[in-house]
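In this section we walk through a basic example: taking a raw amino acid sequence and producing a predicted 3D structure, encoded as discrete structure tokens. The instruction is simple. Fold the sequence below.
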Amino acid sequence: MPDTTSFARLGLPEPLTLALDRLGFAQPTPVQSACIPALLGGRDVLGEAQTGTGKTGAFGLPLIAMTDADDRCVQALVLTPTRELATQVAGALGDFATGVPGIQILPVYGGQPMGAQLRQLHAGAQIVVGTPGRVVDHLKRGSLVLDALKLVVLDEADEMLRMGFIEDIEWILEQTPAERQTALFSATMPAPIRRIAHRHLREPEEIRIGAGNEAGADIDQSYCVVDGHHKPEALARLLEVEPDLDAALVFARTKAATQEIADGLAARGHKVSALNGDMEQKERERVVAELRDGRLDVVVATDVAARGMDVPRITHVFNFDAPGDAEAYVHRIGRTGRAGRKGRAILFLEPRRRRILHEIERLTRKPVRAHAVPDLNAVAESRQARFAARVDALLASGHSDRHDELVDVLLARCGTSERDLARALVALATEMTPLLPPGDATADPLTRMADAVDGRRAPRGRDGKERRGRSEAAQSAPRPSRPPGDDMVRYYMPVGRQHGIGAREIVGALTHEGGLSGADIGRIGLMDHFSHVDLPAALSEPVMRRLGRIHVAQRKLELTRESPEIAGDRAGPARSAGPRVRVASAQADAPRRTDRPGKPARPKTGRSVGKAPENHKRRPTPRPAAGRGRGPAPGKGFGARNGGTLAIRRKPV
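The resulting token sequence is shown next.
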């Protein structure tokens, strides 16, 4: 039963209720109805509420009500995990305070000039919203004085725990007056957060809103079984066929991955941008603003960069890379389905990471249903429907009438029927986005892979743990979709591992920009200085022209039927005659450890040589940044990069 309590009945002063009316807030959310009276009554609050439930209003409205506009001391402190969330919370509090003149709200976080923050603190801001690190800096400088503090709020405490801010938070709380009020809000309540609550909150009123992910009841959650190599293609297909998709947020694990995925989607014509911590704050704010006003439709972000993002247009959240834990998943999908709007969350689940699905269902207490990756026929049908809608709109507008004379000229010049001319014009208009599926759409490797692995459990050893038979790279390596035969032709390319080119780049270019399906690509062989790929002998001329316009890894790939004569690889073709596919690697051209001069071979006893790092983990191998002369970073494989062209030359047999 919906809560019909008005804000006035919660005890808020009239200036605040009038400001809420002007902002369009008619009724409080459940978390606001529970928290506002408790905080106004002087109680500490321990709130378990997820993103999108109205937490900012739940603590922000009583915080404004308790602030004395005539006192120029800091009276309230709000701690947030990220600068984006600090900016968002400060903006919301500023909106609430429009009816209360004299209240100054200051966001403080890293990346801003310290001088500007010092001046505003000296001028007398009463409410400070900041990240733990920058708040600690100000406290140690003495520029932030908390002697008059009335209320401290910990927003998204579990995220601050995950980001390693707990020690800073503990230290900050120790600098605050003992008689202050404290409100702690968290989407989940892990043990460390409960320990902080028991240590620093005084008999708090515990409020649970959206337990078991009830706050995400309007989010349709599903997962697609897809391996790492096929995830870019799966994402591209879903963006084409998902109904009611307005704007989408795609989560990736690393900063480099966000840029690579965004580049791949941009090559397909999407209005997309990356969002990560390597971007300047102004640039990140611009990306969010463009997503909000419709200039962008897709944003590819890391978890940290997307914190605090509140864009009503977001209808879909894609977990391109599975989150590290179920709590992070809850935070991610909270970007959609907000304030009663419907949302859609899709998780790309690699077969080896099935455990995260069970953790998500256990935490949210809701099943996550299986969802098939759209096949090529579904993509074609979606494109046809959009094309037909564009034609209908053009006919209805009457703008096509201006071309009557040109149509008559074409009919006379070509000497063909109106139907044949219409077919030719449709083919020209859709040359880069074919409306028809390939002839052998039933051999779609992506959907075939999902069918093969769905429901299959990894083998287990005697200890009950899943065995990792092959490496992650080997599991995600592309497989040849058919053996070469009479209907296939082997093409050679004068680039190979030494040039940073791998099977992922070749497959990605031929499928994502060339319009081929995985079933059209046969064996791929990678040598140091050249490579080869088997393609159908019956490729049409339009397809050949399209392949000739492809850009791959900033290198020109000239495909020829003649094997290159390169001394270092004379035995290469014979070695690669089998269905061997090697995954591109940023370290593919590095010598093996046993070949390094001056380095002893690794002993076969299993013992490591030398002193291990303190964290007992192997140091990561440096990888070149994407787009810096070595081609795109391996692993995501959209394939397209600005650079040289892919040209195919047929030579007589």
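Looking at the output, two observations stand out. Confidence is low (pLDDT under 50) at residues 211-215, 452-483, 570-636, 639-653. The two ends are 76 Å apart (CA to CA). In the next section we compare this with other chains.
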